[in-house]
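FW: tagging you since you asked about this chain on Friday. Here's the raw sequence from the shared folder, copied in full. Didn't touch anything.
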Amino acid sequence: MAASSAPERILQRLDWQVVRRLDGLLQGDYRTLFHGTGTDFADLREYQWGDDVRYIDWNVTARTSTPYVREYVEDREVTAWFLLDLSPSVDFGSVESERLKRSVLIDFVSTLARLLTRRGNRVGAILYGRAVERTIPAGGGRIQVLRLINDLMEQPRLPSSPFTDLGALLEAGQGTIKRRSLVFVISDFISAPGWERPLNLLTQRHEVMAVRLFDRREIELPDVGALLIEDAETGEQLYVDTHDKAFRRRFKEAAERREATLSDAFRRAGVDAVSLGTDEDLVHAIVRMATLRRRRRRH
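HL: got it, structure written out here
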């Protein structure tokens, strides 16, 4: 791939603006992000209080009427998979941020892929648009990162669609990822209902982290008068008066209810979840993710 190619330029920009800063802030210690996720099955033993319920082997438990957990031995190599939502709502971003959720997704995935592969690990991806569009088999090295960036850039923006089924992406992950892996589900989670169950099933086999993309205009409307709002998924348009305090309050309350519902779904699935805004410094977001994982491991 030519040195002047767009993927190469993106990777060079991220190396300079993001990866170098992360190296300084985390002092090269990425164990809180990636350590201990590449594992092989070793044995079964009876459940003890305090064990991670995600490791319960439900088939054995049902046969014996006694809870059993799976034990794993750590492998030095980590395999990470990115399950990527590129449905129409991901192509939203406010004027102030000048970044779409899709742009944030590409930068985030490229940065993590770079951090992983330069330490000898492997990364793969599954891309969802209207359906599962493409699977990039797990591989290592700089060439794999450039391929991932290139395939993401080639994924076309889609016209409005009345139906996004995030469950299909999660089910594709279950069918594709055979060995226990670190799985990043990156989406705005604007989807038809029903994705919670496949997320639960995915967490029974893999270590899963949810990264929720958002733009602050999706949470709180500014007071700017008459405004045309378009649903990125359906294309439906609606004029609203943002001078109306009651309307702005109802909009914010609805967004907060949705946030609470998402948080509850992640908590029930035992999934670490971070939010990533279009106006957020990517370095700060990744450091926050590392802090979350460090705290999780302590407990």
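FW: The mean pLDDT is 83.
HL: agreed, and Residues 9 and 157 are 21 Å apart (CA to CA).
FW: great, closing this out.
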